[in-house]
Amino acid sequence: MKVILHRRYRFSASHRLHQPGWSPEENRRVYGKCANEHGHGHNYVLEVAVTGPVDPSTGMITNLADLDAFIERSVLAEFDHVYLNEQVPAFDSLVPTAENICRVVYDRLRAYPHARLASIGLEETGANSFEYAGESRENE
Amino acid sequence: MVYLTRKVEFSASHLYHNPDFSPEENRRVFGKCNNPHGHGHNYVLEVTIAGEPDPRTGMVLDLKELKGILEREILDRMDHRFLNYEVPELAGKIPTTETIAMAIWQLLEPRINHRGQGRLHRVRLYETPDLFVDCMGNGQ
Questions:
Q1: Size of interface A-B (CB pairs under 8 A)
Q2: Contact in structure between A118 and A50 (CB atoms under 8 Å)
Q3: Largest Cα–Cα distance in chain A?
Q4: In whole angstroms, what is the distance from residue A73 CA to residue B109 CA?
Q5: CA Rg, chain B, in Å?
């Protein structure tokens, strides 16, 4: 039997979608309002899914206290209440679209030592959500 | 293949305690959930059935029948109960979301799959909106 644990976390951050190699017109054409030079913000919801055997002595795939601390340390401490473009080095030369945020977060969370990362989800707004399970999934 | 999901809710109390652990170990591993008086949740259960619709009825499975199975097998057992002491399927186990979801899978699978129409595909159990577990059969 396959068991997957899902946990949702929240962070609020601002970003701007902008490719420095493009003209202002091109940025405006591709990214629309999101290219606004002063940035704008979202209440993001990050959904982390991990899988693995359930330890019979605890009934758990992983202790939530360990998972919460790891997510806090690996993502939330750096991503919550910041301007992603300017304050998170991972986005120095990477446009912080939700897709790219998913990839950056997924690559960090793969290091979680107590369970296997199954996938991550990111809600940028109630209407836009994204899911990423690494590249290998496409070959499964 | 069509996937059909039915949602039900139940409210129950539980506590996490492993008699093989010392009191300190129980508190360290289970935190607040080790409170000997227990505490409760409003659980939300989503049961997904996969199958081909019967050409005569257009249904994968009659929802009235599924409703009856969920009432008899899950709600009558778990709703407004103290899970540790009143649900035989959880006796001697730590009733985490993982453990409860697996017990629900084992209760439902024979009731649904023997009918030959529609197979249990996924049990999703929410302990809170931010914590939920998926249980899927082997190879899914």
A1: 68
A2: yes
A3: 60
A4: 39
A5: 17
Known catalytic membership, residue B127: yes
Distance between CA B67 and CA B41 in Å, rounded? 22
For B113, list phi and psi in degrees, rounded to 5: -75, -25
Query: Cβ of A3 and B135 within 8 Å?
Result: yes
Q: Are B52 and B60 in contact (CB under 8 A)?
A: yes
Just list the catalytic residues of A: 34, 81, 124
Tokens read off for B95: 């009733």
The C-alpha of B108 sits at a distance from chain A's nearest C-alpha, in angstroms, of 14
B-chain CB neighbours of A65 within 8 Å are: 31
Whether the CA torsion A125, A130, A131, A135 is positive or negative: it is negative
- Closest Cβ opposite residue B20 in set A6, A57, A61: A57
At B1, list the tokens.
């293949």
Contact B99 A2 (CB under 8 A): no
User: Across B15-130, where does the E strand assignment appear?
Assistant: 39-51, 81-82, 119-128
Provide the b/e sequence for B55-81 (b: ≥16 CB within 10 Å).
eeeeebbeeeebeebbeebbbebbeeb
Query: How many residues are given for chain A?
Result: 140
- The pair of three-digit structure tokens given for residue B43, joined into one six-digit string: 């659980």
Query: What is the model's pTM?
Result: 0.92
Q: What is the pLDDT of residues B52-74, one digit of tens each?
A: 999 999 999 999 999 999 999 99
Asked if residues A100 and A91 have their Cβ atoms less than 8 Å apart, the reply is: yes
A68-81 confidence digits (pLDDT tens): 999 999 999 999 99
List the single best residue of B20, B34, B89, B97 to mutate versus A (max A Cβ within 10 A): B97
